[in-house]
Amino acid sequence: MERKGLALDEPKVLLVELKIPRFWTLGMWVSVSLLGLAMVFWFVVQLYMQREFGRIDESLARWKAEDAKTASLNLKTEETKTTPLFHDDGSVFKSDYAYSDGYLPRSVAAQVAILREHFPQLGSFDENLAMQFLPRGAEANFAMPKWQKIDPDYPRAVQKMLGASHLSGEGFGAIPSSFSFDGEHLVSIPRTVNFRGTLYSRQGQHDIVVVPAQFGGKYAGRSPSEIDFRLPSNEFVFGAFELAVYYLTHPERLRSERDAGLIAVGDECCLTRPGEGVVFNMAPCLLQKSKSVLFSLQLKHNSFASFGSPTCFLSE
Fold this sequence. Notes:
Layout: H1 22-71, H2 78-81, H3 108-118, E1 140-145, H4 154-167, E2 186-188, H5 190-202, E3 208-214, H6 224-230, E4 235-237, H7 240-249, E5 261-263, E6 267-269, E7 282-289, E8 292-299, E9 307-308, E10 311-313
Parallel strand pairs: 5-9
Antiparallel strand pairs: 1-3, 2-6, 3-10, 4-10, 5-7, 7-8
Helix pairs in contact: 4-7
């Protein structure tokens, strides 16, 4: 039976509008922002830790290299005795002279303390450079005053620095009577003058400069003139002043006649004799003889198995 006039109701969809409180929206935005910042912070920390661990690895590698280098400073080993020098020109000149047994370079702070003990007027030094990495061939960081802080006249500054070691109990002799500590007998070569000028200007505000150095073992037995000629552009030979400073801070470096002497190729000396012209063909040196440390002069063009030339290194 058909029902008329009746219509079935169509289904109705009930839409419910959810209204989220505004403070909840703000809270979620803050949470997402904080999460993002935390991720950025974590990323930065990871980069920092990678860099620091890299520095630690580099320092450990450098310390291991320094330990190996220190162990190799004793030139009395069989390897050193049979190793020829001047490989490039075919010469087989050899040196079996050594550093003193038990010798090790002092820290920069210890060197500065010794210098100030003898020269109280000396002021500051760059403490950051005392921990600088050593270039290849260097043995330690070396502290030395600017020579003008000892005396405005270079030869007299050298004489005063040598005198400081003499007052500490070491005897200096073997200086020819025709030699005097003045500008007519002791001069620095132009390369040494330029090196000091560059080094002093880089550390201009300090009385004491710090520079990497090796103390003769690298060039033991080689001709002083040949060494100066073949040095790389960033390496410079000691003058008499640097030599005197080094011995003042490291007197144990020369204990016996078997210890390699030190020759300073950065300065030139002449011996004036009646009727002879002035020829700067000598180099100042330090050597151990008859249980005394002597300041003397040697011909620059000769090779001496018993001597080594100390050098400094400048960063490029």
